[in-house]
Structure formats: structure tokens, C-alpha cells
Amino acid sequence: MTPRDASDDSRWSDLERPPLNSAALRRGLVREGGLWRRVEVVERTGSTNTDLVDLATSGKAEEGTVLVAEEQTAGRGRLDRDWTAPPRSGLFFSVLLNPYEVPVTRWGWLPLLTGVAVATGLSRAAGVDTALKWPNDVLVTVGGEERKTGGILAERAGEAGVVIGVGINVTLRADELPVPQAASLALAGAAGTDRDPLLRAMLRSLEEWYGRWRAAVGDPLVSELQETYAAGCATLGKMVRAELPGDRAITGEAVAIDGDGRLVLATEEGVQEPVGAGDIVHLRPA
């Protein structure tokens, strides 16, 4: 990790992509009694998740630490997929949470909670419609087609911590997309692509939802998390294929999100089968 403040970088290689102002972010997010205690912006690193997990397990980071990178060279998505993008073209950040009041059996809701918070924050600050693909993709619509503009990755950090990483493509141009199915907020016609207010909006929304969930001791019904996630989930109502560990696959209609955050599929055999982990493929209508 390069421990140099990114806002001090005078080498603006792309004038349309100015660096984040870390001092302004701290002033806007760190407050007495709030969740966010420390906000650090680095110019370049391999993975903010890896760095923050290392800091947390070595006792060098507390709950509410936010680590942001202007560029990630070894960013990871689910299933260890690579996540790369040009410098300052997106928002790549990780946060450390310590939900000690919540039973560990309910911690599986954290990626879904983060998805709700990210989608809510982006809708407010970017003026763009978003949707969630279970379990952790953020979708926007480009040319009438839902495409992925971001992803979420949660990892344990010691016995009591969880690091959640978020990657959002903000100003990525069509010729910079890693795959044709990807997108960015700019390509989706976002009204605002200034990364400072976008980051603040997502973190404020995450603070709000995390506070509600903790106050409800992780209960997804009491906190209204289950209902809100389902309302914004583009996977529900679609025919999907769940590609599961062990080269097993299930095809069916996604009909619900259950109390454990699992996706429930109604199969052709008349069985409702919950899926807790796997790769979900939205199938096109025949």
C-alpha cells in the first residue's frame, strides 16, 4: 500500500478525473458519536480489503475505519475474480465493522445491507436508478439493458470484525469496460459523477442502515432490511440459474429472500430451494 495522501498528487493524468479530497472527506464524515472514525485515501494499492483486513487483525484499525484507493492493482470480486479499472475512474473502498451485539448467524446480511446502502446513496447523489442482483452486484440500465456497475465483497477480520469492500465504476468509458456486460454511472446517464459527494452519500447511507440493523440486533424484519432489499432486487421474479460449489446448478424462478438472506428458487419440480452461496445467472425469457 502506498501510504501517501492521494489529494497531494499533482500529476493529474486525466483532468476529467480529479483526485479525491481526503481532508474534505474527513470533515464531512468523521464526527463525534458517528460510525466513521478514520478516513484514509491512498493513491494506489493492491486491494483495500486485503490492506484493511491486515490492519484490523494486527490491531491497527478500529471499527469505522474507511480505506479508499484511487487505483487498485489487485482488486477482488466474489469467487476471487479480478476487479481493475483506470485510476480515479471509480470508487474503491473498504470499511471495518464490528457488530458485536449481533449474533454471528446474522452477519450474512451485511453484504446485502451494504448493497441497499450503496444503491440508496447512489440514487440520491448520482440521480440514477439502481438495482441489486443477489447477492452483491449493483446494476444500472444502459441502452435498455441491466448491467453491472459495482460489486461488494465481505471478509472476516479476526474474531469480531468484518471488512466490506465496495467497487463502483463511476466515469468508466465504453472503451474502458473490462467486459461488455459492465457499465458505469456515466454510461447510465448519471446526473452527477463527482466522486466526493458520491462517496459521502454511500457512507452516510451505510451508517444509517448499519445503525438500524444493529439496533434491531440484526433482525432483518424489525430493521426493514429484508423488505427493502427485496424491493430493490432485480433478481426476484426472474428465471435464474444458480451455479453452486461442487459443479452443481439449480434452475428456477427467484421468488423470495428468506430470513437468512438466502435467495429462494422455485424449481420446475415444485420445490422451493434456498441458495446461500453461488453465482447467479439471470436467464433471458425463451
TrEMBL record:
Top-level enzyme category: ligase
Assigned keywords, A-Z: Biotin, Ligase
InterPro entries: aa-tRNA-synth_II/BPL/LPL, Biotin_CoA_COase_ligase, BPL_C, BPL_LPL_catalytic
A GO MF label: biotin--[biotin carboxyl-carrier protein] ligase activity
EC number: 6.3.4.15
CDD domains with a match to the protein in the record: BPL (cd16442)
Boundaries of every BPL/LPL catalytic domain copy: 40-214
PANTHER family xrefs: BIOTIN PROTEIN LIGASE, BIOTIN--PROTEIN LIGASE
Name of the molecule in the record: biotin--[biotin carboxyl-carrier protein] ligase
Organism phylogeny: Bacteria, Bacillati, Actinomycetota, Actinomycetes, Kitasatosporales
